[in-house]
Amino acid sequence: MKLSLRFVLPLILVLAAIAYIVAPLVDQLTLRWFMRDLDMRSSLIANTIQQPLLDLLEADRKSRIVDFFNNITKDERLYAIGYCASPAGKELVSRSLPSVIHCANLDRWAGSNGHLLPSAQGPLLVSVLPMTSSAAPEGRLVLVHDMSFITHRSEETKRYLFYFFMGLALVISLITVIVAQLSWRGWMSGVRSLLRGEGLLWQLAAGVQPSMPEFKPIARDLQRLVRELEAETRARDEDQITWSPESLRSILHSELRGEDIIVVSNREPYLHQRAGERIEIQRPASGLVTALEPIMRACSGTWIAHGSGTADREVVDKHDRVAVPPEKPAYQIRRVWLSQEEEAGYYYGFSNEGLWPLCHIAHVRPTFRTSDWDQYVAVNRKFAKAVVTESRTKNPIVLVQDYHFALLPKMIRDELPDATIIAFWHIPWPNPESFAICPWRDQVLEGLLGSSILGFHTQFHCNNFVDTVDRFIEARVDRESFTVSFGGKLTAVRRYPISIAWPPEAEMLQKPVPDCRSSIRQMLNLPAAHKLGIGVDRLDYTKGIMERFRAIERLLELNPEWIGQFTFVQVAAPTRSGIEEYRHHETQVREMAIRINARFDGKGPPPIVLKVEYHEPREIYEYFRAADLCFVSSLHDGMNLVAKEFVAARDDNRGVLILSQFTGAARELPEALIVNPYDADQCAAAMHIALTMPTEEQRDRMRLMRGLVAEFNVFRWAGRMLLDAAAMRRRSRLIDKTGREVT
Ligand code: ADQ
Hints:
Layout: H1 2-58, H2 62-72, E1 78-84, E2 92-93, H3 106-109, E3 115-117, E4 124-130, E5 140-146, H4 148-195, H5 200-205, H6 216-240, H7 245-255, E6 261-265, E7 271-275, E8 278-282, H8 287-299, E9 302-306, H9 312-315, E10 321-324, E11 331-336, H10 340-359, H11 370-390, E12 397-401, H12 408-415, E13 420-424, H13 432-435, H14 441-448, E14 453-456, H15 459-472, E15 476-478, E16 483-486, E17 489-495, H16 513-523, E18 531-538, H17 545-558, E19 566-573, H18 580-599, E20 608-612, H19 617-626, E21 629-632, H20 641-649, E22 656-660, E23 673-675, H21 680-692, H22 695-711, H23 714-738
Parallel strand pairs: 6-9, 6-12, 9-11, 12-13, 13-14, 14-17, 18-19, 18-21, 19-20, 21-22, 22-23
Antiparallel strand pairs: 1-2, 1-5, 3-4, 4-5, 7-8, 10-11, 15-16, 16-17
Helix pairs in contact: 1-4, 7-8, 7-23, 8-23, 10-11, 11-12, 16-19, 17-18, 17-21
């Protein structure tokens, strides 16, 4: 309404001004025209009646003259007529000649254009015309015309003009209002989108083709520029964030407020174990849980995992859910139950006898069985169903963890097409030739390409994945943006190097380093100044434990001064002992330790102390703090968190890290002594260098490594994935709104 008035009001004002200025002008003009016409008419009448009047005068028939005048004035416009023979004579007049006009004052009315005389019935025009005949030299005719018809006509004209202008005004107003409404709406939506930050520049920044085709070429250049700036700003912004559980929570708050977040992993963040009458809660030491738990707490999400604790079933509700953490419940674990056959086929079989050796180049042949694959498919489907049941919205953010769920992204995508699915592959991705061994190669690739984002630890693994896709399936690979387009959906392949929590829990660093050194040495019956090396791993053939032992043996061969002076403690957690390859590996490791110790027996403390058991993180940190060196000799490892944990444990800036070049961590920690674990001599030399390294050099190297781990901690790993998911969702929302393609 207000809007319409804004446009109609000025129009009405303009029209009113026209009516008040133009109409009187028109009045005056028409009056002058009519007076001139009537004057001419008067002359015509005067000339016409002159002769009959003269005849009647000559016959001196005065009464006939009056009748004659009365007859003439029947004309509706000729109001009266009169004749004066002389100024002093008596006038001969028709009925209605106004009394103010008489022969004595005729001069007053004489003139070329006639005179206006107001009267009760309207204005009259008085014209005085001399007789042209010599028979009446002083005679003058008086003709009075009724001018009221002019007023009527003028009124009528004004009325028509008024209606005309009113109509015109209405039409113009209507058109104005319609145009105004349309452009107003355009402006309003423009303003609104500007307020929302969706102006033209925003469209460009968001990578969306602007609505105006003429801007498209400029837009492309600008979009490229904006993307570059965005990447730079992102890098700068990330550097400025101190990554912590709090920053993760605040990202969640600012970027993903109210979103539905679901994590899927094989292992649960909390296990309920029966211990006699009591139920104990176990929290597996895992970087994954450390990183994802703050997110789950902040968004009250759902964590779907295999319920593997002995008392897991006893504590869940009828939907198989249990609220955790036990001390202050903040999110739900949804447990998925697996039968023994399912676990054997999906977990031990296809995942750990098939995919694990397939992806790790550790020279253990993968075993692929159709029965295992069938269970793998069935279990992935079971988890996909759980995701669909647990999602509160049509477009949850689902974080799928690891190689146990290669098929899950596609299965979820089929059910929830709008979900943002981030799959993270924690192990290496091999080259295409190695991956081609897998009989269900294409299904695995297609399953993973159901993800919106697929993450690996290193760019090398991203490259291998993209090469594999390019080689084996019909997909469009864009190596510039590192995206794969398959089945009409886009998967971004990204590097997210995992890490550990920083700073480590205070409890881990509570015991001073000198105390750790002395207590560990005492426990192992070693002299106080004895040199100590440490290795901490799952007892897995990919970790290169045998290669490590071989290198220790070589060190003692090449540098016998270390015999009885140096001991290496290997803490090895039993793992996957249901698999023959692992049992065989454990036997080999044990035998090798025994053989090497036997070889140097009687020459002081043993070179190797092997502890095949799980240790609490606090105990592991104590070993790390007590050691002079830590040796990570993986034959192939996605990242290797042990290397980063050792660095985190050394707040005294002492100790040397020897790190296999085949770990993801080697790309981030070049200040470690980087070795090829297959080269025993090189590894032995590295150990000798480590044992003799000056404390200043140890400090310099350790400082640099600690700086990196602090900056690229596990919260950054999770935060970057969430930020990318948030950006992706913003972009897809915009595409939904505009229905346009992203370049
Ligand atoms: P893992 O192969 O398990 O992880 P790693 O990254 O080194 O390898 O993590 C092992 C974890 O287990 C560490 O936190 C370590 O402290 C702990 N651990 C090892 N031995 C232990 C013991 N005896 N007792 C208690 N705890 C022990 C997979 C990939 C890696 C990748 C991680 C994370 O193989 O390459 O870094 O996932 O993505």
